[in-house]
Design goal:
Layout: H1 3-14, H2 18-27, H3 32-41, H4 78-94, E1 96-102, E2 105-111, H5 112-121, H6 123-134, E3 138-144, H7 149-175
Antiparallel strand pairs: 1-2, 1-3
Helix pairs in contact: 1-2, 2-3, 4-5, 5-6
């Protein structure tokens, strides 16, 4: 960078005249940083604002501690949180389905909310029906917007267990 470019750069950064920038640069032997410091010492340039940071706790006005469990001061009320939770549950149950098939032919395709409602209303009957149906080649699969791989893994393991029990039963009955 030539002397003219340095003077122009110092002049625009320090907001001083051409003569002042040239004089400061000459005194600093062409070093821009030293020239800026010289101009600061002469009071021609405002010193940069200093900021102090600390990890020590200080009480600042407007930053009061919020008591634990205070729903009013936390931004969201309890009712709003419950409403958001219910909205997510309804969305989850509406956008996912349960498919029931027998011998690889689809028999029933229900939205998950319907399947949950049936289980809630007759859980004892439905659970027995599901377990017994696994022994007669009925399959249950879940699919939809959300990742339901965990539920499918559980149903696959239940089907495998039913198959193993069936095989043991056939094996034991054929030995007799």
């Amino acid at each position: 960078m030539d002397e003219f470019e340095k003077i122009e750069k110092l002049r625009t950064r320090a907001n001083v005249s051409y003569e002042e920038a040239k004089a400061a640069l000459g005194e600093a032997n062409g070093d821009l940083l030293d020239a800026m410091i010289i101009l600061e010492k002469e009071g021609k340039v405002a010193k940069p604002e200093q900021q102090v940071h600390s990890t020590e706790y200080t009480r600042e006005p407007g930053y009061d501690m919020v008591p634990v469990g205070s729903a009013k001061d936390c931004g969201e009320s309890f009712g709003t949180k419950v409403k958001e939770f219910l909205k997510k549950v309804i969305d989850y149950l509406s956008n996912n389905h349960m498919k029931v098939s027998h011998h690889d032919e689809q028999v029933i395709d229900l939205p998950l909310w319907t399947a949950v409602l049936i289980v809630v209303l007759g859980w004892w009957f439905v659970l027995v029906l599901i377990v017994v149906s696994l022994f007669f080649d009925w399959n249950y699969k879940f699919y939809g917007k959300n990742n339901l791989q965990g539920a499918n893994t559980v149903m696959d393991k239940a089907k495998e267990t039913a198959e193993q029990v069936k095989e043991e039963f056939h094996h034991n009955s054929s030995e007799s």
